[in-house]
Amino acid sequence: MTDSNPDRLADSALLARYGNALIGLAAGDAWGYQVEFRSYANMPAYPVPAPAGEWIVSDDTQMTLALHDALTDVDDLTDIDAVTRAITSRFLEWQTDPDNDRAPGTTCMASLSALRSGARWYDANGARESAGCGAVMRLVPTAFAPEPYWLGLTALQAVITHRHPRAIVPALLLADAVRHAPDRGGRLLDEARAESDRIRAGSSRWLSDSYLTAVLAPYRSDVPSLLIDGLDDDVDALLGAAVTSRARLRGLDPSQFGDPCTGVGEGWESASATALGLLVADLATGTTAPLDGPAALAWASTSNGDSDSIACIAGALIGSAHTTPHYWESAGLTPRFEPRYAAALATAADRVLGSAHAEE
């Protein structure tokens, strides 16, 4: 008998999307991690093949799982101090984990060392004033958090280690894209630019989001000016560059795509990482997409920049766009992750924050 209960159907789709996003993120991470510090000219193949044998993830997947665990640790999301403590605690656990030897970001490590010493993220000696891509590569769990919390939680996970408008704004735009991916196939970049326009016009609901305002209050009380500062710090420009690149690439055969970073940036910081992730996902979603999911991860990994972060962001977006379970398997991709992370991903995928299943 087919289940026609709309709440259960919606919950099932949410769980499927979360699982697809997590697997896509981890698969892209492992695929790109193979060549993270290689230049495009020195790639082993074009595109880089999928990992042979065990798929080794990096700090991108590790911190995503830490963030997931932190959010499930909290009973009351309205208690921002409690949420902050939970995220900080899980990130500090990750900092000293024996597996944290996979090129962790220097900003994340330095910020967490300051917090371990007793500083608060918003103190002058707290989180680093950096816009590194660590603020965006791990945000999938907050993108799936319920209303009215997801926007503020996304900002919070960013500022705990990256206290900078150029980190916060790309994180919000990317979380919005992940959250609404099924309805935005092939036009994720366009929707991000539309939200930017609404922020500048003063019509974005983000400007009056009370939870976001409360999260950012210790740092900047004027949310509209903070968001515009972020947009002005090359975020808008890089989104525009990615749109230009997308138009050029749509006229080519995928074998001619070349380095995804061309004309946009290398993804080492949040703005270009987000723009590149949206670009790759736009070319792998929608009715006329030239790439399927696995091909998109291969292309994203074959980059002159932060290959694992670009591919993990793209994988999260592509996975989130699919509302039926096991998208990646149906697309022919069955990564064999290390047992620890395979188990953690499977457990996390069954507990998306805000679903009824997570509250059982």
From TrEMBL:
Q: Which cofactor does it need?
A: Mg(2+)
Full protein name: Glycohydrolase
Q: Which GO terms describe its molecular function?
A: hydrolase activity; metal ion binding
Taxonomic source organism: Rhodococcus rhodnii LMG 5362
Keyword hit for Membrane: no
Q: Does the keyword Magnesium apply?
A: yes
What taxonomic lineage is listed for the species of origin?
A: Bacteria, Bacillati, Actinomycetota, Actinomycetes, Mycobacteriales
- Keywords for the protein's UniProt record, in alphabetical order: Hydrolase, Magnesium, Metal-binding
The record's remark on the cofactor is: Binds 2 magnesium ions per subunit.
Q: Which residues bind Mg(2+)?
A: S58, D59, D60, D306, D308, S309
Q: Pfam families per the record?
A: ADP_ribosyl_GH
